[in-house]
Amino acid sequence: SKSVFGHRYRYMPPKNVVQMLTGLVDDYGIKDITFYDDEFTIDQERATYLCDAIIDSGLDITFTCESRVDSLSLPLLALLKDAGCRLIYFGIESGNQSILNSLNKHINLQQVRDTVAMTQLAGIQAAGYFMFGAPGETKETIKQTIDFSRSLHLDHAQFSICSPMPGSKLFDIYTRTHEVKNWNEFQYLSKANKVMFTTDELPADYLEKVTEEANAFYYEAVK
């Protein structure tokens, strides 16, 4: 939470990461790793050092990570592939540029297309996170997001409902025009999660239905 911890981050030296990975492999027989950094490649130089360290260690692992569409290059993708990366998740969020702008994503739809294609060209699966209900969202922009997601030919996709967290700028935007509900009902990782913010055009039952349908259609399509 940036509102709690600020905007700086502390990272572990690549040699320490490899040490931990080696322990997981040797002690527990782990074969696949998830790096849960919000942006694994935010520092491309460090990502390069880490991939080189994994390769030099001879570790026989695969891994997944999360990145932004504006923080990758073909050389780095090739190195990620050599180090064992099998899938990268991208926070794409919307297929409408105005919605992306309202979220301060600082990316555009063509960047998304190019990076997804580049990732798959490097032999790495590409996955996308999308959400419905951001500021300015309408039924039409939701349809645009669904259509855009399908046009990308992603290997995986996940659709969810926008849930502005207390302390975030997005929360401040919503609470100017929305009543704050009981946050004891909010369960971030639960399928039974409550829709915390709605509009007349996007009531809770509609957001829940369209999110469920988007996920169901996608996973049925990629079987």
Mean of residue pLDDT values: 90
Distance between the terminal alpha carbons, to the nearest Å?
Answer: 36 Å
**Major sheet summary line:** 5 strands, parallel
Shape: globular
Give the C-alpha Rg: 19 Å
The ordered string of helix (H) and strand (E) elements is HHEHEHEHHEHEHH
Structure annotation, total helices: 9
What is the strand content? 5-15%
User: How would you classify the helix and strand content by structural class?
Assistant: alpha/beta
Q: Unreliable runs, pLDDT <50, ≥5 residues?
A: none
Strand order of the largest sheet: 1-2-3-4-5
- The counted number of beta strands is 5
Q: Main traits of this protein?
A:
single chain; globular; 9 helices; 14% strand; alpha/beta
Please tell me about this protein's structure.
By secondary structure, the chain is an alpha/beta fold. Helices cover 45% and strands 14% of the residues. The protein is built from 9 helices and 5 strands, in the order ααβαβαβααβαβαα. A 5-stranded parallel beta sheet has the order 1-2-3-4-5. The protein is globular and about 55 Å long. The relative contact order is 0.10. The mean pLDDT is 90.
